[in-house]
Amino acid sequence: MKIDLIAVGTKMPSWVQEGYQEYAKRLPRDLSLNLVELPLANRSKNTNVDQVKAAEGEQILSVIGSPSGNHRVIALDVLGKKLSTELLAEKMASWRMDGVNVSLLIGGPDGLSPKCLNRADEKWSLSGLTLPHPLVRIVLAEQLYRAWTILQNHPYHK
Q: Which of 12, 69, 107, 151 has CB 3.0 to 4.6 Å from 16, enough for a Cys bridge?
């Protein structure tokens, strides 16, 4: 199973890169986590936020490709469904059983475009809190690792 974490934003601080890599490398080879970084759209004082989100959304959609039955797209959005780690583990087990690959979408500072949200099969919220987008990469990688440990009956989750 392949999970693509598609994130708007490049040139992350070293602590973000190191935190993400720490959890990504712990996952087994048959559960690969791949980070796809996309550049932020140009912003200025007078930038139209909707245009910026649309431009970033087009980049994301070009990476995802066209819909298929063995590919799930999950948008990270403040209005999305909140999951427990145990439910994430159940979803991961189902994806693996069904041979599904997954794309997790993280928008830029202004969020995801309506097109990305409409393309998503599911929308998740990691928290009611507003998290910095670089930190979301680390939290997602850690939670995927934690869900995998649950499926393996590994003591990490406890």
A: 12
Condensed to tens digits (0 to 9), the pLDDT of residues 93-141 reads: 999 999 999 999 999 989 999 999 999 999 999 998 888 889 999 999 9
Could you tell me the domains of the chain?
2-157 (3.40.1280.10)
Contact criterion met (CB below 8 Å) for 115 and 54: yes
Are 141 and 20 contacting, i.e. CB atoms less than 8 angstroms apart?
Answer: yes
User: What one-letter code names the amino acid at 74?
Assistant: I
